[in-house]
Amino acid sequence: MPAARWTDEVTTVDESVQPASAALRDPDRQGTLQTATGVAAWAAFGPTGAPAALLVPASDGILGWPPSFVRELEGNGLQVLVLSVPPKMADDAPAVADAAAAVLETTGVGAAHVVAASQGGIAAQVLAAAHPAQVASLTLLMTRRPTAAHLDVPAGLVAVLAPDKGGRPLLGRATEAAAAVAQGVVADSAAVAEQAAAAEAAGADPVTALLCFAAGEDRTLPPLPVAIPATVVHGDADPVVPLEAGRLLAAALGAEVVVVDGGHDLPWGREAEVARGVAALAATTRSAARRKVPWSGRDAGWRRPGRVASTLGVLFVVLLAAIIAASTIDVPYYAIAPGTARRTNDLVEVPQDRRFPPKGQLLFVTVGVGRLKALGWLLSSRDDDVEIVPESVILGTTPKGEYPQQVSQEMVDAKEAATVVALRRLCEQVTETGTGARVEQVVEGSPAATAGITEGDTVTTVDDTPVTTATQALAMLRSKAPGASFAVTVVGPAEGSPPRTSTATLAGRPDDPGRSFLGVTLRTRQQDFSLPFEVAIDSGKVGGPSAGLEFALSILDQLSPGELTGGGKVAVTGTIELDGTVGPVGGIPQKTVTVRRAGAKLFLVPKEQVAEAQAKATGGVEVVGVATLDEAIEALAARGGDRTGIPGDCPVP
């Protein structure tokens, strides 16, 4: 079994606890506080006043919260509090719970949406039981219900498991731990030892944490004695906390259980999905009232149901059956919902010897797009920030099965165009090659249509001059005045199609009669670019072309010494063409909501979509429309940005 994948990003503190982990850089606020059992540290990210997510630490050295997850939560409109405790406190669930409660009180957050994994999930449940007014919802990953062992660990067992300065082998201590709780073992002791070995190889000391998961499920304990919305996420092959324990936990909490591929590790690669789940719980619990019931041990909460309770139980079962049915019925609609706003400082990579690390933030704004079930349609229709559209609006003429591949390719093209445009804007030499200019679209009634040019054709010559790229073809057309005629040769899309030559006569553009107009959209066939150096952009699992402008600006910001954002937080959306033109995108209202939640005060959008964005731009968000990359640069410069290093005489061709 592989070691935990994020041991280098664990958020913990040593015995002389320091504020904020180095793995979670640049917190907006941070501090330390003294609790009854030790010193705890906290770091806060995102705007104050927003709903808060509290990340509870797991046992020292095993699992940590990746910065990417914190960014996803921020992008969903949450402020994020990350709690850190000393190693000696990490396995003391009540102590961690008390520290979490103290942090929430110190920061003035009040009730938080608590996210916890592994041993941290035990502490989160103790927090919910002891301080229910401070827990708005629970998202629990790879954990189980608390048992008596978690709340009162025998001193002798602690001695067996305590880190040994004398050099006693870790695997030996793991074996002793399994033997010490053998009367209740659920997880296979060999798997426990294997997990310990993997953690040891990663430089961690997990034995103390494994105590709680080697111990069996204590089914004499009642469910958590407080009604709090919750979601349980569990790996289908978890060797430490069996999936059945996760199902029992979900049943005890009345929670949904989400089963994912994997073992006893965080389901990353799915940060956005987990963050959206936390945000969804936050959205549904803002006005929920909770009652305070203190943790009272083994006999808490057991009552014989009366007649009224039984009747309500029957009604609940009927309602639950209706909800389950509604959640399985497909409807031909999609929901467009607010998504995430991610900082691209860490997503765009340029050579280190050319990089000028920005202090400000350019935000990559997304929307959530998903096909609806009947229940989802009902819930989404009540949300003013969610737009429901027919599936034809999303898919167009693309078959449903091909849509994911299409949006994935659009993102690939957007990243390539952003890189080429940004490097050319910095006067870097970028060479394009191809085998002609493919016709992507023909305007009805245009000169191209009259000349017999159709979608899928490839232009190979203009006036007998060979054409290899769309840029070359467009330059030839722009050099001709309206009314000029020329010979154009095209080949059809089918293999072996013979060349066709016809005469086309340019018209004037409808919006600018002095400029020539053929009426086609062109793209280079078999396009390739030769770059002076490598630029890498990590877009994750996001598809579509709408991040092109943002990526281009981020590349410029990292390759120029000036602080293009002026050190602030700027959100951007819009497609980018190879000539620097900015095009419209979908989901502008939902993106504006995302920007507002992320705390950005400036939002650059395609010029024709300003009104759409302004309709949702409350809370001091300034919306600025731009039509080109240069207009975006000028808009930033006019608001305190520094364009030093971006030449004024090297425009995009």
Q: What attributes does this structure have?
A:
single chain, 653 residues, alpha/beta, Rossmann fold, Ribosomal Protein S5, domain 2, Pdz3 Domain, 3 domains, 8-stranded mixed β-sheet, 6-stranded mixed β-sheet, 21 helices, 33% helix, elongated, disordered N terminus
Concise structural overview:
By secondary structure, the protein is an alpha/beta fold.
Walk me through this protein's architecture.
The chain has 21 helices and 28 strands. α7 runs antiparallel to α8 (189-201). The strands form seven sheets. Strands 1-2-4-3-5-6-7-8 form an eight-stranded mixed β-sheet, sandwiched between helices. Strands 12-9-11-24-27-28 form a six-stranded mixed β-sheet. It is elongated. The model is unreliable at 1-23, 148-189, 202-223 and 287-326 (pLDDT under 50). It has three domains: 7-284, Alpha/Beta hydrolase fold, catalytic domain (Rossmann fold, 3-Layer(aba) Sandwich), CATH 3.40.50; 333-426 and 531-637, Ribosomal Protein S5, domain 2; 432-528, PDZ domain (Pdz3 Domain, Roll), CATH 2.30.42.10. β5, α4 and β6 (135-141) form a beta-alpha-beta unit. The chain is an alpha/beta fold and 653 residues long.
